[in-house]
Amino acid sequence: TDGELITWDASGDPATVAVGTATHVLTSNGAGAAPTFQAAAGGGSWNYITTVTASNSATVDIESQMDSTYGLYVVQAVDIVPATDEARLYARFGVGSSYFSTGDYSWANTGNNRETSYTPNSTNSSSEDSEIIMSGEQNTSGSYVLGSETGEASALTCYIPNPSGTTYNKMCYWTLMTNSATKEVLLTTGGCVYKPAGTVAITSIQFYMSTGNVEAGTFRLYGIANS
Q: Is this prediction's pTM over 0.85?
């Protein structure tokens, strides 16, 4: 099969090394054992997992991609544009294609900006919400929202530690960068704890807007090697 390698078995007869997964490397298993393709070792290395591209999508779902393989997962998203101007970015945890929408999310975010028409800073939080609000709450000046005017786009880095663990509540923390049509900077940082009655493992995360669809955006999931 294309991608297999030739080796020798314990009897000295020809055998094959099975095709590996994309980005895996050929690894020795010691004398007397055939090598195998494995995830690259090395502390803190980023391992690409999957990409989801939004195209006027109601939600962006990264489903069933997180498990105990890595202790930390990272979503990096670029060129995020809402279909409706001045929307906020929301998220939810889930298992498979089922996402948690009960009032068990506790989140907080802080926004800073260099936009003369916006409030200088904004801190928002909730202890019993049905979703994670990643961009700051809209206030009277409409600050810390995602724009859809020409030239406007946003970028997100979201960290999700130990999603498969069941001892502690699930968490995530993020930085969201956006800009206005006049090239001003809007930056939001935040964190969330999902605290249902019992601790649960999660495998999925969903992103969506407070109003309208996700017009565009490329969302990539990475796993950070445990050692």
A: no
